[in-house]
Amino acid sequence: MNNLVDLDTPASPALATPLRTSRAYVLPLIVFAIFALVPLSVLWGSQSFILALVTRIMILALAAMSLDLLIGYGAMISFGHAAYVGLGAYSVAILSSHGITDGFIQLAVALGVSLIFALFTGAISLRTKGVYFIMITLAFGQMLFFLGTSLAAYGGDDGLTLASRSMFFASNFLKNDVAMYYVAFGVLLGAYLLLRAIVASRFGRVLRGIRENPVRMEAIGFAPYRYQLTAYVIAGMIAGVSGFLLANQTEFVSPAYTAWQRSGDLIFVLVLGGLGSLHGAIIGAAVFSLLADILSHYTENWALIFGPILILVVLYARGGITGLFGSKS
Amino acid sequence: MSSAPLQLQNICKNYGALRVTDDVSLNIEAGELHAIIGPNGAGKTTLIHQISGHAQSDSGRIIFDGQDVSRLPMAERARMGLVRSFQITSILPRFSALENVAIAVQARSGSSFSFFGNASKEPALNDTAMTLLSRFGLAARAGVPAGQMSHGEKRQLEIAIALAAKPKLLLLDEPLAGTSHDESQRLINTLQELRKELPIVLIEHDMDAVFALADRVSVLVYGRIIASGSPQSIRDNAEVRAAYLGEEAA
Amino acid sequence: MTLTLALVQILNGLQFGLILFLIAAGLTLVFGVMDFINLAHGVQYMVGAYLVAAFTAMTGSFVAGLALALPAALIFGLLLEVLIFRHLYDRDHLDQVLATFGVIIFLNQAVKYIWGAAPLNVAIPDALSGAVEITDGMLYPVWRLVIIAVGLAVGLALYLVVNKTKLGMLVRAGASNAAMVSALGVNIRLLFTIVFGVGAMLAGFAGAMVAPILSVEPGMGDNVLILAFVVIVIGGIGSIRGAFIAALLIGLVDTLGRFFAPTLLKLLLDPSAASQTGRAIAPMLIYILMAAVLFFRPSGLFPSKQ
Fold it and tell me: What is the complex's ipTM, to 2 decimals?
């Protein structure tokens, strides 16, 4: 491998530095181009369930991408990220069940609730390190899960069906699956660009520095806690938006959205696609969902294959899929 | 009340039953380069940890720039200008050499809670960082991931990073450790320039460097300062010879 | 009369806590000595339950079933160790979490595939299937008392081994500083294997003991696993004593909390709100407890590493 790294060439995905050359933009460009064109395939006669499937992929990708900020760029292994998906989803469902169907209000509540929960739990969790951090984030996720199962008024364990999708400007246009698709697409693209900017910014550089060597960062005057907490809140809020979209897409919410296994799935998706690259989360979400969908058509025991795949990826393909495409020129 | 930039007053620290810092009192005067020497295990690095804030003393006070910083965390002391380098190289391995220094410059120039704009392209940060790298002869290696640099280069980078953080006082923990003769000569020359600019506390084993650079020397043995004074007086001190130099001479 | 009810709940809490201890003991040692986060430990517990169910059905006797299940659980655990886990000791925690998560996914499906999704039944041995009168006409199941007795006995045995034997000293030293122990010439590989094997067997044993009173079903290890982690985090990683205290604490808090929360809340709220809130808060109590402990002691109550 060449020792001298030109300032203008991108680092390998695991390095998680901002994109610089055109080559580094190719993969995300292809990914978004594909997503932009999928609905057209439906027009040309392919099955309409593809629309729903790919919409869900994008929603999953959004949540995983927000987690990448934490794990890939911040080395904060949160095992409770699915909590925010649940918070966002339930914001929609609960407000809707009370007659408040305006999407802007629901979104604002989803963001607000995610902000508060992330601020509160992050403030406590970030006082710990290593496995303690993993456990405490897991614990907070579990708390929400149990809270959800006990909310009999909102379906408890069985969950709650939405009467309709969110209304925007008094219009129910989201009912149209293609509209739903492009809204999710727009949000995913927007979040991607936002996170790209954040990662390249001063704040992002500090976050990455803390990931590399927290003591070093302290020695030059950066107190890690406040930067990590900020990242934690940003990630939580984006995942909350993912929950907002999920509730709309499935028109159903349940505490299962916040189960710790779902948090595990998010990490799986990330590592599968490639940590610390943002678009890796999208690729991982796509592969994960498609694999699960295809395998489940052949056997109801698809988990028998999924488990070993995860183990093999961890053991032998640690850089994930983007790692396979890594710039090793 | 002394006006010395750094005052250590009766610093004590125990690890369980082991007394690692035993009632250390020391004033570092403005403009001086003060070397701390002592046999391995004397507690020199632990002392630096306590001065910089990486470790908490059990008792005693640390006054920096007129303020009691004993309870302040390391990051805050660094922002006040109390900056250290590490004995075991502590850089950001996957950042380039330039970015390692630039992020230290960033730490002392405005808020880092800015979420837009490309930090690695900020000209002010990069120019200052480049100047510092040049001072240490590392300009040609600016784009190299710091983890891939040679050991000697990393030691120089350590100090470059420390300098970038706009220190009012430098704590250098064995900067010459593991460097080649040329590299250490270059570092000594740089330190000669630096000592005119700001007070420096230098831990070193390289006696040539110590006697070439130090205005005063303190000797730490088993966590306790057994002697403190001019380099010549230390060299002549019988107790010091016995405890430390004596071992070396033999 | 409420006193008797309370006594029953306390005994239940003790029993639950001791089962948690059996599982957490192995977990905390493995993590303490080998720095290995093993999410698949819960699966070990599940496999113990399934094995005893299978062997009991095969032999018609619980005792025989148990006698066969324990070595089988040990072999199973060692198999996992050799095939997967030992490749992860040098990896970072994220890799360990993910790989063991993969093991959970696989094994939960595997037992469903082999035994079906419906819960299995395991009969308590006749001699121990009755109930005894503890006070005032309140009957308490003998089997639960057996679990308590056995749990305490194992706890005592572990305490003696860890604190009074050479092996135990090596384990404690390893939990404090594994590299140093290895540098001193101890066969660290063998130590790891022993620690892992004992831990796996304890978890399997716990699963076997609860098989007669809980549902033996796929996924039964998942929630218990989380609780076991909560135990070792509160107790302090690497500490058997910490695991014991934390396990009992959690067992009691969870059981008594579920029982008394609605009752206590009735003092503040109207009955239906109290009952609702109580049911919502009760399962969260343990996690609130853990968050509180970690807030004041970010490394748990009795960490073995400073």
Answer: 0.91
